[in-house]
Amino acid sequence: MASPSAADDLEQTLLSFEKLDRSSPDLWPEKIPGVSEFVASHSPLSEHCTPPKWLQDIDEDDINMLQEFGSLTPAGLIDKVKQLQNLAYQLGLEEAREMTRGKFLNILNKGRVKKK
């Protein structure tokens, strides 16, 4: 078995740094729209290393949660989804109870003045 550094050296020799001029859409048509931008953004040789748009609004807690979900087994993920569904259902019941309570206490109409 080859050592990891030998595999890295082999991979480096397979890289091509040749730049092809793709300015002509007749010679180099883009078969799938958006592929060129995707390749450019994920290329190791790209000059700009800005994070993708979906990653800009994610904070540390969101990243930790994504890593936690990614480490779950399929059965564990299904259990987590069921827990979230149960929590959402319980919150819905509680909200309905509070809205009914607010209606009976007539606190939702306090800001409105009835005109005669």
UniProtKB/TrEMBL annotation:
Pfam families associated with the record: LIN52 (PF10044)
Q: Which family does it belong to?
A: Belongs to the lin-52 family.
Per its record, how is this protein called by name? Protein lin-52 homolog isoform X1
Organism source for this protein?
A: Priapulus caudatus (Priapulid worm)
Q: What is the lineage of its organism?
A: Eukaryota, Metazoa, Ecdysozoa, Scalidophora, Priapulida
